[in-house]
Amino acid sequence: xxxxxxxxxxxxxxxxxxxxxxxxxxxxxxxxxxxxxxxxxxxxxxxxxxxxxxxxxxxxxxxxxxxxxxxxxxxxxxxxxxxxxxxxxxxxxxxxxxxxxxxxxxxxxxxxxxxxxxxxxxxxxxxxxxxxxxxxxxxxxxxxxxxxxxxxxxxxxxxxxxxxxxxxxxxxxxxxxxxxxxxxxxxxxxxxxxxxxxxxxxxxxxxxxxxxxxxxxxxxxxxxxxxxxxxxxxxxxxxxxxxxxxxxxxxxxxxxxxxxxxxxxxxxxxxxxxxxxxxxxxxxxxxxxxxxxxxxxxxxxxxxxxxxxxxxxxxxxxxxxxxxxxxxxxxxxxxxxxxxxxxxxxxxxxxxxxxxxxxxxxxxxxxxxxxxxxxxxxxxxxxxxxxxxxxxxxxxxxxxxxxxxxxxxxxxxxxxxxxxxxxxxxxxxxxxxx
Length: 434
Fold this sequence. Notes:
The protein is α/β, with parallel strands linked by helices. The protein has helices at residues 10-21, 33-40, 51-60, 70-74, 97-109, 126-140, 161-166, 178-187, 189-193, 203-234, 238-246, 267-280, 286-298, 301-309, 337-347, 360-367, 401-407, and strands spanning 2-6, 25-29, 64-67, 79-82, 114-118, 147-151, 171-174, 198-201, 318-322, 351-355, 372-373, 386-389, 412-415, 429-432.
């Protein structure tokens, strides 16, 4: 099967490489010439475990190609996936301009049947807009060419995206014709053989499923953060509470870990977009509005603990930070809690030195020379007045605590992820969430 994927960001590149691994011939398209040149030279623009080997192997095998020209492969493919970005607009709604631009381009050059599939996260009703954009361009050309649209939202976790793609909980597909269903069934046949769940539904339901899933997970995180903050006030242990409710089969333990707030490319953006959709349709989502507010407050909680410890006397203090990416396993810093913390520290007149196993280059692009960059976890600590643990990378789990204590001016550890054992931290003041 021949397919095109427009957009070589996180979703497009992972999907393209995985479809190629399953035996499809995949043409990955992007308007960024520099990115395409790098991909053609085996240089991966994002960090994702296992992705570099997957891309290189399938490119060598002649199943994975990279180009800036959408029209080059349009006559060769049966399906085209739209996987371009849908960043939030000022009002929180998803910006559809890149998606519509792809649809316009398809309509301008389509010559035979094509199934157009949205993999970008798009609001309910977007497939209708895509269809209308293609039809408008075909009318301009006085062409009548049959095509279908479908929705195939992604549910990939950064840091585990390849496993998520190859061994999914479920594959959600929205279609409106038998032909589209047949093609999508053929595409996912390897997964059907392994008894993975491919769930077919109407297109609006598929579009809504993506937003609803992320909104539910974001809600669980914000709920647990609220409970953790209350635990501190009443003397309860949030870790014990989490275990106590997580063992209830109706609730489960996932996404119930208190922390410094959620970030990344999906949860903040998708919550905003779903809130906007609710407002636009006269059905306000007040629960999600609260989730968003809770998350923004939670990102400031680490600084609050630091400021309270020093009774407001923090100007000139030296802060060490372990972890910059919004979660382990990725270099993604979009909406990362570390950015809020760093902004607060710098505004208060503190100096900051940070270390992250993979996100240092991304941090330099975002923060420039406003902070210092360490070579390892201990390099952050010399004469530090506080150590913030922000992202739970595994290499932070078992440091030499005596070395940590000796390097710091004031041995204060503020743990934004609650992963350390207090009994091992002799001589270190340990503050955590919950």
